[in-house]
Amino acid sequence: MRQSNIGWLFLAPATLILFVVGFIPFIYILYVGFFDWNTNALDPTLRWAGLQNYRNLVFDTTFLSSLARTLVFAFIVVISELLLGYVLARALMADRLWGRQFFRTIHTLPIVVAPIAVGATWRLLCVPGFGIVPYYLKLWFGIDYNISTNAYHAFGTAIIMDLWHWTPFVTLSLMAGLTALPKEPLEQAQIDGGNKLQIFWYVIVPMLKPVLLTTVFIRLMDALRSVDEIWMLTKGGPAEATRFIGLHIWINVFPKTDYGYGAAMSLLTLYVTIVLSWLLFVAMTGRKGGAQ
Amino acid sequence: MNNFAKAVGVGFVSLGLWSSTALAQDSWWKTAAQPYQGATIRGISESTPASKYVEQVLGPKFTEETGIKVEFEATSWDQMYDKAIKDMEANTGIYDFVYIEQDIVYTYLARNFLVDITKSLADNAKIASPDFKPENFTTFLNYFKDPKSGNVMGVPMEAFIKPYLYRKDLFEDPAIQKAYKDATGADLKPATTHEEYTQIAKFFTEYGADKELWGTTVQASSSHPAAFYEFFESVAPTFGVYNWGIDGTTFAATEANGGQMNSAAAKKALNYWVDLLKYAPPESTSSTWDEVAGTFAAGRAAQGLVYGENAAWIATDESKSTVVGKVGVALPPVEAGVMEAAGSGKGYIGYYDGGAFGIPHSSKNKDASLLFLQYIGQASVQTDWALAGSRIVMNSTYDDPKIVEQDQKMNGYYTLMRDDGKLFAGAPPYPFHSQVLQVVAPFIYKAIVGEIKPDDALDQAATAAEAELVKLGYRK
Lengths: 292, 476
Known about the structure:
Chain A: One of its GO terms (cellular component) is plasma membrane. By secondary structure, chain A is mainly alpha-helical. In chain A, 74% of the residues lie in helices and 1% in strands.
């Protein structure tokens, strides 16, 4: 009992910080979401709107399409990074790979680049007329690649940029997980005659599940709130082809100063993220909640 | 010998007068800045040639003379607004002076973001420099006065028009002139109508097919407000559609309600502008003002509307521009009757842009910032600043021999600005500038990429703009 009280004492600073930077802003956003509030309106004061902001969201096609676009983007990048990350992790763990350390270092470098710099760099590579990507795609394959007119090109480039930036994170996480796996079950599975696919699916994946779950959670949440990289690459365009939900909320909250509506959007997006994470947790663990 | 002695004598007297004047000036700044010695003032601005001059020259010189340190952040247009507005909204006081673009000043005034410079100097005469005289500025200063009190709220630091630049070397090449005559039956000269402009654009795109040369630049980013600005502030006025097509008294945007945003003239303008993309280099749909200047400087376009802040370096800086000595300057092409309307003050033919530095209410060093703003508002610093940034905010600057010399290299850009600047106008005085822009711009983007037709884009944009104005409480 005495030990438990000391534990609370140690937790107090972190709890206080979380309360101030997490809980209070959350309550404030919840509060603002019930008001019509625009500091650039003729009447810039908060006016009670009840659930009107949430009602409007249901009919706001720009918001709904931004949300749908973000979910598609997140689904594609998380799955792709998981698969690619696993393949790379196994490749970089192979004893036969010459210069393994060098490749590991090179592969890890994108993680340390700031997202804003990643976006700017990819923009320079891809901007039509000047970038080397459209130049060589035209020269070698005759492709008129243009991220400022073709929605598919812009969306595809956003995905490739995200894969380049974050696959190394998945690779590192899985390498750490794979390295920590006990050898005995694998050897036992080999003795029992399991082929590579069976060993992977029935032995490695279950043992790797905690690492996979953590990695997928982190990447999913990151992908759902992508803003800075996309902003630098396409600014949400062409037209609204890459206007992901984070960008859409930012535009409503800052340049448009529509705080009430922006708060409602943020809360709904948070709710979607929580639901998705819970579904993922259930799917991967077969349980509906609670601690391991 | 006598003449020589006289000359030497006059020289010494002049030097003495100059030195005493300089010393007197030095002593005034030093004396006035005494209470603020060691203070640091922080400013933020868009990274433009004029801002870079403040960062690299005026800031350090001010520090040297006063002991007040100037930290200056020259960043992108978006970042500048984002940071400055958040700072002023939250009252954090990170910035002591901020860039106020001509089009945003009405929003800042409506939200009481700015310090009243006239009043502050009247209240504290000790820091009112004798060399800072608002009457020295051009009428551009009027954009930064509070309409209610007439007091100065910002010190102009750049001002320029958006002229029609063309490649003089190409337009004056006899072989090209003949080819143009053969192809079109007309003489090759800077366009005065939209039909001529399109014809020239088409001709040069065909002529330059294997030369990395296109007929025109277009500031038509498919996801950046630059496209909105190019259309509503540079192109639509040349078709007689002013103030973004919004009625300034009823705040109607649709033609049905008395607005002009989706009028026949506006639709003709958007169709013309979008059509120009056929004759523009591929980067045009990614181009903001910076990229348009870059495209023209790289020699990739025969003509274009280019913000004048870039005119000087494009025309004179060989380290950045491949078209030095080849740049011609003219007024933008217009529809019939528009030039006359502009001449009589009932309309305008393009954008008179620029900005000022103002002091946010949240600043923690208001007096030191006032000193700095007056320092950059002296007549003596204007010439070199204009040479570096092709911006002129004072009448006296136009007559300076250095400016006259640069004007010749720029084929008369400054002369055009002085003589015909009155034909151009700044953004309409709307406090809802950013809000309407964000609502309307997506429809312009969709027209650029061909997602919707220009006519539909303007119909939808006008309806959306009106709805936003109702929501903001301006339109009943």
